[in-house]
Amino acid sequence: MGLFDKVKNLAGQHADKVEGALDKVAEVVDEKTGGKYADQIDKGVEAAKGFVDGDGEGDTASPSAASPTP
């Protein structure tokens, strides 16, 4: 079992805690950026939650979802 598999397994076992942490981090980042990147932050959080849930959505996020628009 590789490191990636171990991380995915641990994240799946503690999905509620990981998702709560993702929400808190997203809130802080959104606040620090003045809401300028709210859509991108939301997309990133949803992709990360998809990864944690194991539904594969975390692997399909488009590159534009992760890069902020100037």
Characterization of this structure:
The protein is elongated. The chain is an all-alpha fold and about 70 residues long. The protein contains 4 helices and no strands. About 15% of the residues have low confidence. The chain has one domain. About 5% of the residues are buried. It starts with a helix and ends with a helix. About 70% of the residues lie in helices and about 0% in strands.
List keywords for this structure.
mainly alpha
Brief digest:
The protein is an all-alpha fold and 70 residues long. The chain has helices at 3-13, 15-32, 38-53, 63-66.
Stretches where pLDDT is under 50 for at least 5 consecutive residues are 58-66
SS content category: mainly alpha
Q: How many domains?
A: 1
Secondary structure tally: strands: 0
Average pLDDT across residues?
A: 82
Shape: elongated
Q: Which bin fits the share of residues in helices? A: over 70%
Number of helices: 4
Question: What is the secondary structure topology, with strand pairs?
Answer:
Blueprint: H1 3-13, H2 15-32, H3 38-53, H4 63-66
